[in-house]
């Protein structure tokens, strides 16, 4: 079991950041994030997440027109913005990724279940990215508040990948964090049957 300090780092004390310190995130750190997050489970090991780590001035300018007004400054000043997308044709990789059943591709190819499976599991992988980044000492600011179609047109013009959400990554400026919002108690939202 992780100790209390580790649990606090990943969950209890971790915050959604809106401001960033002027401290870079390295290529090595981005590789380390992915090398942790990739181990999180997905159904039939489908791994539909596709990530673009936007760090350059040119990349940020390309992303900027898709951002809502409230997300522009924090995204433009973040050391990295991860575009979390999912591969709508993830099933093409199942013969390699789920070798236990070579018929798995047919569970999804041409089926209505493909899109929700890609979205659901890509979302899970996005959560794993946040946990991995926090575990490695980085802060995150996941967000909606952008035009998916504009991001897709700018970064995924072939239409195969679909944007899910954005996540700023870096070293958060703790002076710009909102006060902690409440959470539901177990009995308000959970049932044991």
Automatic annotation (TrEMBL):
Its cofactor is FMN. InterPro entries: Nitroreductase, Nitroreductase-like, Nitroreductase_HadB/RutE, RutE-like. Its EC number is 1.-.-.-. Keywords: Flavoprotein, FMN, NAD, NADP, Oxidoreductase. GO terms for molecular function: 3-hydroxypropionate dehydrogenase (NADP+) activity. Signal peptide: none annotated. It is an enzyme of class 1 (oxidoreductase). Residues 20-158 form the Nitroreductase domain. Belongs to the nitroreductase family. HadB/RutE subfamily. This is Putative NADH dehydrogenase/NAD(P)H nitroreductase LJ725_15035. The lineage of its organism: Bacteria, Pseudomonadati, Pseudomonadota, Alphaproteobacteria, Hyphomicrobiales.
